[in-house]
């Protein structure tokens, strides 16, 4: 339904028609039959700020007269032709071009009868004389950027091209689209982190946290164009602009790039030339780049760090630092490490040859998973370092005079959703100081640092931990029961305190919230294998599930006798019930067939606005049934009638969907006999 390829544009592209029939330009008469060329007279992108496109795509806040849309969502446009469009003999196609070099992208958008999600497609939804209104689907994984659009019209007489210059289309990431990698399911957070143009910046010390308003100014005139211009300097193929992981990493490098090319370097030079003070600069346009950026402040004092969380002080120093967090999935990491990612535009060390930092999963930072990309050791050190005071001797050497353990990474703060209050999010970056979880995370990280022996290595690794699940796994609506199996392979007793945490997870691998956490004391006799039953009750998770009912159970601990660290992660989902599809009698071509579809609500909650979908059996469209509400634990039966049109083996598919329960399906194999 679409194509993507590299291309080169001609040196000039004028706003004219090209007759591709092979002969000289034809003179188009005023006739309205399909025997004449189908010429495009005008294109209306419905791009006004108060129009449906800008409102529905949440881009009406931009001070721009351009069409700004979000990917994975439909937009509408009008085309006026030289004669009425004839769907039987005429054809239509859009060509979208991103970039103007060999690294660009060319996308063909075909005209179809029925729009399908996750495709580049368009459909005529209204026709008035010589005008047609199109609904155009965009791909939720399309590259962001400024697209040039050309309309291709086909008729029996030939093809004509209509470049829509200067009416370019700006395509952005879409936190409102469930199939987009930056999807955020909380409307209040979308308004705060995407649509709010004013934020708060915090400064000072832990004891005296100052605050002032921060004007992001991301919607001001020409800022969007400037941001895309900056991305073009990133020397990354535009096919990679679809990935927020790559885009955010590119932005970090561009902002802090050395050799005088960095945005911050240029701004700093301009401010110095104009004798402006940084603390008076309240409109920071460089922070307008997309992906739900939210400003983060970390109170700390730092010049150098290493993976062993040691900080070397050389006064004078900063006492706070600012970075961004960006919300996205992380398909390049294990499940559970998506969500908020650190993106630091002013890092103090290079990463893969350039000064940049991130995106770094804050869940990886919290658990000391410093082997996960990108730049987790650096961010871990930023929030977990010790402050060490050194004294310079007369011979030039240094001696350590004092160590402060709990001064770095305090009061990590951000603006509250919907208010100007300060929210402390330190707990998202690390466990409480001195807790068993925090010590385990620090030691795990230190084993991969430049001083892996900073903490004593375990004298033995003779205890194993596994998490097991019976059969196909727990059903939604009931208690989830797993087993934690520990085995002592030594000839001595082993004791430990296990810490477990279970979190709700989106199907994209993004963690939503912690449902339950607790400790389990453990004693293992020599050579003993112990199975600990673990249960998550329905009442504990019933109000927290999302999409496919996925959860992550993490178990950590330390063996007291050997200092061995125990760690295990286990992803599982709560299975949904099947729809039971039962044909009543034989299926014959041209003869009415009755089918019963049975569904039982597994939840002790009422299901609101239940929608059934039925397809297959050679039907040309999906049958939708808005059922309404289903009472808790109730059973409902639908009776539907069909007239098969094709003989042979067929399948009839049904699905049920509502806010509390998704992924409910059923299928029946039906052999249709000929008349």
TrEMBL record:
InterPro entries: Ig-like_fold, Ig_E-set, Papain-like_cys_pep_sf, Transglutaminase, Transglutaminase-like, Transglutaminase-like_sf, Transglutaminase_animal, Transglutaminase_C. The keyword Acyltransferase applies. GO terms for biological process: keratinization; nervous system development. It is found in: Membrane. Residues 20-29 have a biased composition (Low complexity). Binds 1 Ca(2+) ion per subunit. Ca(2+) binds at residues 384, 386, 433, 438. It comes from the Eukaryota. Residues 297-347 form the Transglutaminase-like domain. Residues 1-29 are annotated as: Disordered. It is a lipid-anchor. Its EC number is 2.3.2.13. One of its GO terms (molecular function) is protein-glutamine gamma-glutamyltransferase activity. One of its GO terms (cellular component) is membrane. The keyword Cytoplasm does not apply. Interacts with PLAAT4. Catalyzes the cross-linking of proteins and the conjugation of polyamines to proteins. Responsible for cross-linking epidermal proteins during formation of the stratum corneum. Involved in cell proliferation. This is Protein-glutamine gamma-glutamyltransferase K. It comes from Cyprinus carpio (Common carp). The lineage of its organism: Eukaryota, Metazoa, Chordata, Craniata, Vertebrata.
